[in-house]
Design a protein that fits this description.
The chain is an all-alpha fold. Helix content is 79%, strand content 0%.
Length: 270
């Protein structure tokens, strides 16, 4: 029954693409469409230039000149917070892989199927990955529509927007797999939710503080923050940072292996 769990998950969860992807797309549309002319961008430029350098670093780095460009504007006003919102969905989706299914009695049914335990988790994670890609695609469409409604973004490359969207996928998958792993190891769903949410929040603030402070010790701790590898401003300015993508994806695979091992040994329903 290869693919049965994958298909069942997509069939029951595909609407999340419309809800989350559509919502993020509307936010992207608004973020771009709100800049109607170069005068508004000039006002934004003055605000950015008046900000102290540590605040610029906290927003993701980059220089004031770039952040006052159309690309720089979107790197802060959309991509600066989009991964955080996708991470919220990833926590919810991670709980749906095992914890919620177990509470609803669905996991007992799945375990009665002639498939391996690990296959259930892998296929559910693959289905959620497809859903997340669908959400990113719909978000891209909304952002692209917004960009095309404003003449300010006439010279902005579509590839830049695509790279910005692709850059959010590894971090979102990391939170998805991490939440799944925690929910398998920790028996209480509320505790698993709290731990996953705490990691996301700590990663976000840790990265912002480390960039703003520039302290070596904080930068060392920041290695455990997935936002440290997001580099949204750098990606919009110079393109995808392949090494960062690989690091986060490898970490996701390691966490998935731990989740699979833990799920193999877990007593369902206890």
């Amino acid at each position: 029954m290869i693919g049965a769990v994958f298909t069942q998950t997509l069939r029951t969860k595909w609407r999340q693409i419309l809800y989350w992807g559509g919502g993020m797309g509307l936010m992207g549309l608004y973020a771009a469409a709100v800049v109607r002319d170069s005068e508004m961008l000039e006002q934004y430029s003055k605000i950015v230039e008046s900000m102290p350098s540590f605040l610029l670093d906290a927003f993701g780095g980059g220089d004031a000149v770039f952040m006052a460009t159309p690309e720089g504007f979107l790197s802060v006003e959309f991509f600066g917070w989009a991964l955080l919102l996708f991470s919220v969905y990833a926590i919810i989706a991670g709980l749906n892989v095992v914890a919620n299914e177990e509470d609803d009695g669905i996991m007992d049914v799945l375990l009665s199927w002639p498939i391996a335990r690990w296959q259930i988790v892998v296929e559910k994670l693959l289905a959620q990955t497809v859903i997340i890609i669908g959400m990113l695609t719909l978000s891209f469409v909304g952002l692209l529509i917004g960009v095309n409604t404003s003449p300010v973004f006439d010279e902005m490359s579509v590839l830049t927007l695509v790279e910005g969207m692709v850059n959010m996928l590894p971090g979102t998958l990391l939170v998805l797999v991490l939440t799944t792993m925690i929910s398998v190891i920790v028996r209480r769903k509320s505790l698993a939710t709290g731990l996953a949410a705490a990691y996301v929040a700590a990663s976000f603030f840790m990265d912002s503080i480390a960039r703003a402070a520039g302290v070596t010790l904080l930068k060392g701790i920041n290695l455990f923050s997935y936002f440290n590898y997001y580099e949204h401003v750098e990606v919009i300015q110079h393109g995808l940072q392949i090494d960062n993508l690989v690091i986060v994806l490898v970490a996701s695979v390691v966490l998935m292996v731990v989740a699979l091992i833990a799920f193999q040994q877990r007593d369902i329903g206890l």
